[in-house]
Design a protein that fits this description.
The structure holds 2 protein chains of 2 kinds. By secondary structure, chain A is an all-beta fold. Chain A is 0% helix and 46% strand. The termini of chain A are far apart. The chains are: A mainly beta, B mainly beta.
């Protein structure tokens, strides 16, 4: 079956513009994560969705960042008034359920460049 | 607090030699441990995990990892390295009560022909 897909694969924007990043998880996966990976760095947790529960937004770095997940499937990460320090690869992952032993399946990422 | 350490930024190994990528962790409860690999310009791929049971876990591409509770380690190993194993490797951990994975900073593995 299809894996996790993300779009766009690359996004170049000007400082101050808003951007939307999309994630389409594996069908049937109820858990969805967003991460940020800066060049050569590890993964920084941003936000977590599980089914219809309230999302865990504890990793969002500022109120310029927000995310939605519609119908328990597709998710959109929105960054308002982008700054140069927002430049990074944004990764989305999904998992079959909340169980802590389930691995996460990652999309290819969106590389965001803020000029 | 939960944490993961990958003490080596980079590991260089000659093709055909055994390789080890180190990972140590700190969690308050029982650890669930994971290894992922990231090839250039690609997303992360799951390699293997330890949940419970045998301390030696076998995964994809001939990799294995050994869980050592007393040393709080989960080192990734492969008996004979391939040039195609060159990639960025991440160790991650969560405890039984937390859905969040805590990630190491990653280790760049370079296999030289």
């Amino acid at each position: 079956g299809a894996g996790v897909s993300q779009s766009p694969s690359n996004k170049v924007t000007e400082k101050g513009k808003d951007v939307e990043l999309r994630c389409d998880p594996i069908s049937g996966h109820t858990a969805l994560y967003w991460y940020r990976q800066s060049l050569g760095q590890g993964l920084e947790f941003l936000i977590y969705f599980q089914g219809n529960s309230a999302p865990d937004k504890s990793g969002l770095p500022s109120d310029r960042f927000s995310a939605e997940r519609t119908g328990g499937s597709v998710s959109t990460l929105t960054i308002q008034r982008t700054q140069q320090e927002d430049s990074a690869v944004y990764l989305c992952a999904s998992s079959p359920k909340t169980g802590t032993y389930n691995e996460q399946f990652f999309g290819p990422g969106t590389r965001l460049t803020v000029l | 607090a939960q944490s993961v350490a990958q003490p080596e930024d980079q590991v260089n190994v000659a093709e055909g030699n055994p390789l080890t990528v180190k990972c140590t962790y700190s969690v308050s409860g029982n650890p669930y441990l994971f290894w992922y690999v990231q090839y250039p310009n690609r997303g992360l791929q799951f390699l293997l995990k330890y949940i419970t049971g045998d301390n030696l876990v076998k995964g994809s591409y001939g990799f294995e990892a050994e869980f050592n509770k007393s040393q709080t380690s989960f080192h990734l190993k492969k008996p004979s390295a391939l040039v195609s194993d060159s990639a960025l490797y991440f160790c991650a951990v969560r405890d039984g009560s937390n859905y969040q994975l805590i990630w190491g900073a990653g280790t760049k593995l370079i296999i030289k022909p």
